[in-house]
Amino acid sequence: MHSMTWDKNCLTLLNQTKLPGRVEYIRCSDYQTVAEAIRRLEVRGAPAIGAAAAYGLVIGARQLAEGSGDFWSGLMKIVQELKATRPTAVNLFWALDRMAGVAGRYRQSDVQTLLAALEQEAIAIAQEDRTVNSRIAANGAALFDQPLAVLTHCNAGALATVGFGTALGVIRQAWADGNITRVFADETRPLLQGARLTAWELMQEQIPVTLITDSMAGWVMKQRKIQAVIVGADRVTLNGDVANKIGTYSVAVLAKEHGIPFYVAAPASTFDFTMHSGDAIPIEERQADEITTIGGVRIAPAEVEVFNPAFDVTPHALVSALITEYGVLRAPYAPAITKIQQQLRGEQ
Ligand code: MRU
């Protein structure tokens, strides 16, 4: 199963809002379709939206090359439009800044050369995500040296990336090593990424999974049914604070109370090296009907006031380790994260 495929002229996205009931694809031949797909969560998960947006810019650049308007200002406008789709996952901004950087380097070249460079960069972003997933999986799986059950929240699997996932990548590897007995998947209200996507992915791999509602996580811990928590991230700040799907913070607090390690698996592209603490992370708020309806059926009074933040921030003090492609980071996080930043600068 792949969240997206690229075939030179077109980006094809697996429509995640239809899963697991229907396997449907969206063919994106204009950048507006890509932007809409990100906004609607048809493609979702931090690394996946970064890669989709990069391909979206390639498509948008081709649209501009066929038109008559000013190419450069049009391109910068598309970058901004794609950036405006979702505010929290930093991978979106990281990928688009990287694409804009390439465009800048080829600004004086002919347009075909620039288009080819953009396509190459988008493909590189996608390809690197696959490699990075494997490294995170290997680094994370090394934390598990005996069979245990884990809990995860939301979906940080193949669907959320271009490869086979961050948190679920670690789980897949640890399962292959014989060190996972079962995965408890929080359903992840309101959009049910855990119930619809994580349960589906794990069942496809025949990894034993038990679905629970978010409110059951504490009781599952109290009953010693799990020995570790592992989740993905949408943005990690310099001090190690972690933005992830709403409900992650509650899981982290519960894990602390029960003395259970709380691991976060995330690639360097999810680290925001410009932000010092999670307090500054913009948290997306989504529409009320995500909470007042389920599957199109109203479950709350029509006019009820709703608060629907899509993400929360887990303070670094609750994070036992950050699993990255550069290794497993432990507190104090700031020096370890700064070291990755320096390594990245060296690689450029
Ligand atoms: O709103 P979503 O479904 O895009 O939120 C996704 C998450 O919160 C994931 O846990 C996160 O992006 C990590 S994906 C590897």
Automatic annotation (TrEMBL):
It is an enzyme of class 5 (isomerase). Pathway: Amino-acid biosynthesis; L-methionine biosynthesis via salvage pathway; L-methionine from S-methyl-5-thio-alpha-D-ribose 1-phosphate: step 1/6. The record marks C154 as: Transition state stabilizer. Pfam families: IF-2B. GO terms for molecular function: S-methyl-5-thioribose-1-phosphate isomerase activity. It comes from the Bacteria. The keyword Nucleotide-binding does not apply. GO terms for biological process: L-methionine salvage from methylthioadenosine. Keywords: Amino-acid biosynthesis, Isomerase, Methionine biosynthesis. The active site is at D234 (proton donor). It catalyses: 5-(methylsulfanyl)-alpha-D-ribose 1-phosphate = 5-(methylsulfanyl)-D-ribulose 1-phosphate. Substrate binds at R44, G45, A46, R86, Q193, N244, K245. Its EC number is 5.3.1.23. Belongs to the EIF-2B alpha/beta/delta subunits family. MtnA subfamily. Catalyzes the interconversion of methylthioribose-1-phosphate (MTR-1-P) into methylthioribulose-1-phosphate (MTRu-1-P). HAMAP family: Salvage_MtnA (MF_01678). This is Methylthioribose-1-phosphate isomerase. The gene is mtnA.
